[in-house]
Amino acid sequence: MSPEWLLEDGRPLAAATVLSHPEQLGRLRASCPEAVPTAVLAGDPCYDRILAALPHRDRFRRALGVGPDRRLIVISSTWSPRSLFGGDATEQDDGAGELLTWLLSRLAAELPADEYRTAAVLHPNIWHGHGPGQVRAWLDGARRAGLTLIPPLDGWRQALVAADCVVGDHGSVTYYAASIGVPVLVRGFPQQDLDPLSPVASLGRTAPVLAARGSLRAQIDHAIAAHRPERYKELAEQTSSSPGESAVLLRRLFYRLMGIAEPTGGRARLDPLPLPRFEPARRTAPVRALTRVVGVDRPEVSVVRYADAGEPGPPGGSQGDAEACHTAVNEDTGELDRLHIADVVIRYGSEDDPRVGPPGAWTAETLDRYPYCGLAAYVDGPDRCVVRTRAGDLVRLAAAPDASGRPDLCDPAAYASAVHAWVSAGRPLRQAGRELTVRTGTAVHRVTVEHLAPR
């Protein structure tokens, strides 16, 4: 709301300066009184679309491959030099390097892949200022570890609605998250760049700060557990003084500016947020799987998987109560040296892909191609895969749906790791019977084991 943004040669640039709340009018009077005659209170169409989409939260989560026992962490950055994207961690932390890439690599190292999902929302000016290719190159390590980069114009509102926690800076996305009751942690929040009287500045003073030292996972979990839905109630009320009414108010304004009568036939409406396409995490970095056989009479295996993003694993290097550790590598990885020594090799594709399928043929070829590989897994659906072991077993693993009949959205590669743990412990796969229970964090997956060929 400063004059350099609103005036040219001392006169307002805009015929109408749209504000979403009266508190902005008071700040406009103080910062740029010349623009006050152009001010119009007309709500916030972006916020209205978010509010209207809140009932579809579960759908948006499933579109990102997030089930009820998994947490979606959204990382958001605006475009200033002191933003989360533009900030330099060497000035603020402990020599970790550029702030956002440091944060993403730490998150990949600390957050178990099957218990958390990460997505990044970057301001359009970042994409257009540096170019999509450069942005993707800078974040390549995080993307290979499973991060989804949300397109700059579409999809970010749905990700916000779906989120369990937002880690962000002083951009509007972080503020929108707080306004709809999502737990937030702030990082890269330069108060010196903000109007101290603004609601955004107030959020920066109120929200917990993500500290560089200590466990990021523990801070995120605490922010979620300690969050109260009414915590940012006052800030939410300042987002818009006319929630749900922006389409009506803006259309009225537009026709007034054009000098023609507004249509009377129907109410002005905003397009609802579309349901994004199904996009589970795509992970091509090697994965470290920590496993433990929990039950033998009733076969059960615990699996905790971490993407190898070049950072140390869980704080302190602890493997918890795991009995064994192995490496699983996607055949599409760029790290071919790791592929040739992988314990488990994975491919994602359709069952009838003529280039590599059927799954039985691919798994046999893979075990021949990689002599150190103990198990090959072909993931051909959101809840299933075909696995072949060195012992000659060929089985289909399929997770049971939930009570409503919807598919289990855990990555089936976790089930393949469970089978590897079972046979690596010296137990024949047929001893597991027709069902194997796989635990990933607090989630329990009932996986049927269908033998497709004799040993």
Describe the structure.
- It is a single chain.
- By secondary structure, this protein is α/β, with parallel strands linked by helices.
- Helix content is 32%, strand content 22%.
- The chain has 18 helices and 18 strands.
- Helix 4 crosses helix 10.
How far is it from the N-terminal to the C-terminal residue, by CA?
73 Å
Major sheet summary line? 9 strands, mixed, barrel
> Could you name the ranges where pLDDT drops below 50 across 5 or more consecutive residues?
91-97
Q: Which class do the helix and strand fractions yield?
A: alpha/beta
Strand tally is 18
Mean pLDDT: 92
Output the radius of gyration: 25 Å
**What spatial form do the alpha-carbon principal axes imply?**
elongated
* Strand content bin: 15-25%
Number of helices: 18
How helical, in percent, are the residues? 25-40%
How do the strands of the widest beta sheet line up side by side?
Answer: 10-11-17-18-16-15-14-13-12
Briefly, what is this?
The chain contains 18 helices and 18 strands.
Q: Secondary-structure blueprint of this entry?
A:
Layout: H1 3-6, E1 7-8, E2 11-12, E3 17-19, H2 22-31, E4 39-41, H3 45-53, H4 57-63, E5 71-77, H5 89-92, H6 99-110, E6 116-122, H7 124-130, H8 132-138, H9 140-144, E7 148-149, H10 156-162, E8 165-168, H11 172-179, E9 184-186, H12 199-206, H13 216-226, H14 233-237, H15 246-258, E10 287-295, E11 300-307, E12 324-330, H16 336-339, E13 344-348, H17 359-369, E14 375-381, E15 384-389, E16 394-399, H18 413-424, E17 435-440, E18 443-453
Parallel strand pairs: 3-4, 5-6, 5-8, 6-7, 8-9, 11-17, 12-13, 13-14
Antiparallel strand pairs: 1-2, 10-11, 10-12, 14-15, 15-16, 16-18, 17-18
